[in-house]
What does this fold into?
Amino acid sequence: MTPHRSSRFAFLLISLSLALVGSALSHDKKDWPVPEEARTMTNPVPLTDAALASAKAIFDESCANCHGDTGKGDGPDAAMYSVKPADLSDAHMMSEMTDGEIFYKISEGRKPMPPFKKTLTEEQRWQLVHFVRTFAPKPAPAPAKKVARAKKSAAKKP
Ligand code: HEC
It folds into this structure.
């Protein structure tokens, strides 16, 4: 190898390892693995005003200090932590999470978020699942026109 080549090689190695470290770090923050059997659980608590009211009281008491009154992750304690409390009003993020996933995350916690499985009953945690879903704007219903158009054009194809 010529000196020129080997320094290029070293540069490549360095960039590669930086990229790896970077992805490992962001992985840590973003990917919160939830076991399949927890992910697919459905909410056994009916969505009622009473359930939402009960959950709101719990949220204000136990969650809002980090997640903020409107779920944006901007509670008064948020700045104390190196990991920013999740923005529960993020419609995209929330639409990608199943009820079972939210339940699991509330139950188990992840630093700095504490686990709530010992301090809240299952029913309370499922009520919270309903409640945290109220922060994100409802995803727009599947645009009927577009679907109809897509079907039409699919039907046209030979
Ligand atoms: C001490 C601050 C703190 C408290 C109290 C807290 N959280 Fe969190 N919460 C966090 C942080 C930080 C994260 C992001 C954790 C991560 O991604 O590693 C998080 C993540 C979440 C998530 C998952 C979102 C995602 O990124 O997947 C949900 C749902 C959630 N919190 C709900 C709640 C509820 C409901 C309560 C109250 C019962 C609560 N949290 C209390 C700090 C807190």
